[in-house]
Amino acid sequence: MNSYVHGYADREARRLRDQADTLAELLHADSRFPPGVSILEAGCGVGAQTVTLAAQNPDAKITAIDVAGESLRLAEQRCLQSGITNVKFEQGDIFDLSYPDASFDVVFVCFVLEHLAAPVEALRELLRVMKPEGTIWVIEGDHGSAFFHPDSTSARAAIECQVSLQAAAGGNANIGRELYPLMCEAGLIGVTVSPRHVYVDGSRPQWIEGFTRDTFTAMIEGVRDAALAAGILAAPEFDAGIRDLNRTAQTDGVFSYMFFKATGRREALAAR
């Protein structure tokens, strides 16, 4: 995996957990699979999504991998603290998996492709380890889908800092809109995409805290040092953007964002 633009500090681990808790129902209400299935979670990070996936599928056999050993340690620790016992953690490279062909019934990938310079290559490697007629589930966001009230050119400039930094690291912060063509190019069949809309206003205080402040604005604020070092924005401009994003979290503000959840299948073996 390419450099993770958000970093690996404790603050980012907390943000990922806040994000997962807030979005659990929106993104994972349908992440349920038959008992006994084998699931590969590719790029589990600190286990923010692993806990929800495992809790909703207690009779599944889950293998969670990540390239970062410290993230795996935190993921395993979180699962233990949550009483999760059906997950095995292993260090692994999504581009060069150690598993034989056709090893898993289900592959689950959440907020991973956006950080890869070659997402189609990763999808092809994941396709290799899927059983015939196995399924893959992919979730990504799209920063270009963000809109808000009051609107602000400063806030948009701050968001663009994160988009630019991720692009410089080889990723794509707007990849959500591309899931269908990427998955088709990788050789998956029956690809379908379900947009998952986050809408926040003053009538939804839990989303104001959980998403507008603690997920999205915290993510943009987290790239401040890197954006300033890269000369993308000066400090006063960036800080004005963060103030304006926080302004959308007032009771008369509105924030909107789109996630995309896609699924596809591996083709069945041809009859002999």
Q: Can you offer a commentary on this structure?
A:
With about 270 residues, the protein is α/β, with parallel strands linked by helices. The protein has a single domain (about 10-265), classed as Rossmann fold (3-Layer(aba) Sandwich), CATH 3.40.50. Helices cover about 40% and strands about 25% of the residues. The protein has helices spanning about 10-30, 50-55, 70-80, 120-130, 155-170, 180-185, 205-220, 225-230, 235-245, and strands spanning about 40, 60-65, 85-90, 105-110, 130-150, 190-200, 255-265. Strands 3-2-1-4-5-7-6 form a seven-stranded mixed beta sheet. Helix 1 crosses helix 7, helix 4 crosses helix 6 (about 180-185) and helix 5 (about 155-170) packs across helix 9 (about 235-245). The protein is globular and about 55 Å long.
